[in-house]
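Fill-in record for long-chain-fatty-acid--CoA ligase.
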Amino acid sequence: MLGVVTAAVAGLLLLLLLLRDRLFPFLWEDLGAFLALGGAAARCRRRLSRRPVVTLLEVFQEHARRQPHRPLLLFQDEVFTYRDVEQRSSRAARAFSQRLGLQPGQTVAVFLPNEPTYVWTWLALAKLGCPMACLNSNVRGQALLHALAAAQATFVLASTELRDALEEVLPDLQRDGIKVFYLSSKSPTPGVEALLPAIEAASDEPLPGHYRAGITANSKAIYIYTSGTTGLPKAAVITELKLMMVASLGRICGIRGTDHVYTTLPLYHSAGLLIGVGGCLEIGATCVLRSKFSASQFWDDCRRYNVTVIQYVGELMRYLCNTPKRDNDHKHGVRLAVGNGLRAEVWKEFLQRFGPISIWEFYGATEGNAGFINYTGKIGAVGRANPFLKSFAPFELIKYNVEQDEPVRDERGLCIRVRPGETGLLVIKITKNTPFHGYAGDSKKTEKKILRDVLAKGDAFFNSGDLLMMDHEKFVYFQDRVGDTFRWKGENVATTEVEATLAMVNFIQEVNVYGVSVPGCEGKCGMAAIRLKPGMSFEGENFYAFTKETLPSYAAPRFVRIQEAMEITGTFKQCKGNLVREGFDPTIIKDPLFFRDEKKKSYVPMNTDIHAAIREAKINL
């Protein structure tokens, strides 16, 4: 009898295991991810609930005490240990306090390229309790002034490399009472002081605690500009809690304290600064920093600096795959890649060419209140609809009318969930666990990102502006951006803001900016349909010069289409659908077409030869 019962129990357990594998095949992975993410969130909140609070700065300082001689930054031929950066940031903090008179809570903008100065400046400002505004080093003119105003920055710390951009707006800055300093030994600009001598002369003793006495989990730590870098930057608010949570992403993905993390991404973006450098500060790892990405030198750098972890955006991986094949493509120490925007076809090619690297794709917006991590390694996915995590960060994919640029609602006025396999707009519920802090100095744009009455009257969700799809196994895939934004060269380009800039050109009557697909390229490439003023002609050289001066390179349209009249809707909205579908093919389009020729520094007439060269990747966009 006992034998029969034992056999029955064993059979039942076997049946349950079989059912689990069939009905819940990713149960353990889902549970493991939930515990890892939940543990990270609990650790961050526990640190920030202490008195005094333990922020990312204090975590870094603890690493500096425990491992003072471990390299924190490797840059070109320079090595900066944890102790070096701790001492240099203390000297800078004292100089900033004495020469600038900084007080806790004052926002300071940094206008710097990728270099070690960026890191110790960030930590110096944190030691003074001053939020840092990370200016995009590509912004110029009015966009630069707008960025400073958005974050209410009263000081700018700049590099002499960006002298021209700074001098262009210096009279406006001086008029507005914004003080500018160079982080260099000498100043090339009259009236702008060079701070490096004062920094080098300052004491490296730890600063008094009173500077950070008022810091809490919800204190503003950093402003990072998003989307509006094409013309009107939006300053996303990063609190101390969010900063620490994002910096924990590396640990969740498997980065260890012994790793060398290679980042070529710009430090004015959240991926490079918060995940790359911040992740190293959080875990005690080494950051290998490069001023700019170079496909030809990428793997040589990885070998030279003993890199074990790389950061990427989708375009970066495609560039690596497009380089000529080498015999040593597999000869490197990289075991892990962390990033976002990697297309499935590039993903497969990358692994085949460069070896079995563990790729951790994630999805998230700088200003967003939650995201996804692909912890299973499913090629092409950005993550999973983890049932455990969804209880912590509720999200939905809802039906979206792309033509009308708005969610589809039912007879009750509520949004409609999409079914598995259908594309929908990602929205994430705004709760205590997933707050949305919005944009500094722009309540209208903050409100525009909040979608209300989604599943019930009175609820509020963060509108990601992204279309995603969930398959029947609950894997989530990025599809496209909605509305007036597309992505090119790893940057978000807001078409309405580019249009506002181009509308200032004297021969343009109307302009409609949109993104078009280019074979072999990630994202969409900028194109502008233009209606000329009566009696005026398109001036290719002048238009090139204007876009060069007013727009970042990734936002300047690569193609121009001259139209007699613009297609509009009944509510006078410009139509983009047909323009996007027709693209830049001169055999289809009868309107005059122009191509941005970087060598000739002009927009030149498009022809079939240029079109063929672009399709065959013989012309680099």
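KEY FINDING: The longest helix spans residues 27-49.
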